[in-house]
Every structure is written in structure tokens, then in C-alpha cells.
Amino acid sequence: MGLLFVESLPGPKVFKCKFCGVDSASRDAIVSKEFRGRHGRAYLFDSVVNVSLGPNEDRYLMTGLHTVNDIYCSCCQRRLGWRYEKAYNEDQKYKEGKYILEKNMMLKEGWRRR
């Protein structure tokens, strides 16, 4: 088995895998907080780190048919969300290549409570 390289994100506000604590995304990469995942609220990100992709799968989501890949934490292999590979509706094309992370699978590090 090879050595696992884990990328650490700079900055005070970072989303981490809830299960193992490895960095997953930066607050600066958030595109939208108005998404729903399988288990509640989710965020759309431009980029994520320390994840692996599952196979392409056509899935009917709230906004229509999409080709997606589930994304898994590269350390603990827990499913964290999915990546939009292809959107079939023209008004959904902006999602292609972007990532959904489910809020209940993430810890927020460096965030102040309001």
C-alpha cells in the first residue's frame, strides 16, 4: 500500500471531514449554500481536496437528470457528496465540474458561532 498524501488548506475557515478531520474545502471555494443533499443541506464548491471519485452515474436530482460521481474522503473513504460531471438541462450547465459537500458530513474549523 502506498503512502497517502493529504493536502492541508490555508486560511482560518476550512471544511473538514466529520469522520477523520482531514481538510476537504475552503470557504473561499463556495459557489452556493442553497443546495440539498441526500441528508439535508449541502454546499456547492468550485474545488475540493483530499477526495476520490466514484464511477459516473446518471442520477435524477431535484433539478433534472445529471451524470455525477460520488466523492469519498481519501483518508476514511466515507461518502461526502458528489461531483457534477454533466448536466442535461441547459440552465444547469453551470454545475458541471463542481462539487456538492453535504453539510452533515463536514466540520467547520475556524468559524465563529453567531
What order do the helices and strands come in, and which of them pair?
Blueprint: E1 14-17, E2 23-26, E3 30-37, E4 40-45, E5 51-61, E6 64-73, E7 79-87, E8 99-102, E9 106-109
Antiparallel strand pairs: 1-2, 1-9, 3-4, 4-8, 5-6, 6-7, 7-8
Family: Belongs to the yippee family.
Domain Yippee: 13-110
Protein name: Protein yippee-like
Report the portion of residues in β strands.
Answer: over 45%
Query: Sheet bearing the most strands, described?
Result: 6 strands, antiparallel
| Helix content estimate | under 10%
Radius of gyration: 14 Å
Structural class: mainly beta
The rounded distance between the terminal residues' Cα atoms is: 44 Å
- The rough form would be described as globular
Low-confidence stretches: none
Query: Mean of the pLDDT scores?
Result: 92
- H and E string: EEEEEEEEE
* DSSP helical segment count: 0
Task: Going across the biggest sheet, name each strand in turn.
Answer: 3-4-8-7-6-5
Query: How many strands appear in the DSSP assignment?
Result: 9
Characterization of the model:
It is a single chain. The chain is an all-beta fold. The protein has a domain at 37-107. 0% of the residues lie in helices and 53% in strands. The chain has no helices and nine strands. The chain has strands at residues 14-17, 23-26, 30-37, 40-45, 51-61, 64-73, 79-87, 99-102, 106-109. The termini are far apart.
Summarize it:
The chain has 114 residues and is mainly β. The chain has no helices and nine strands.
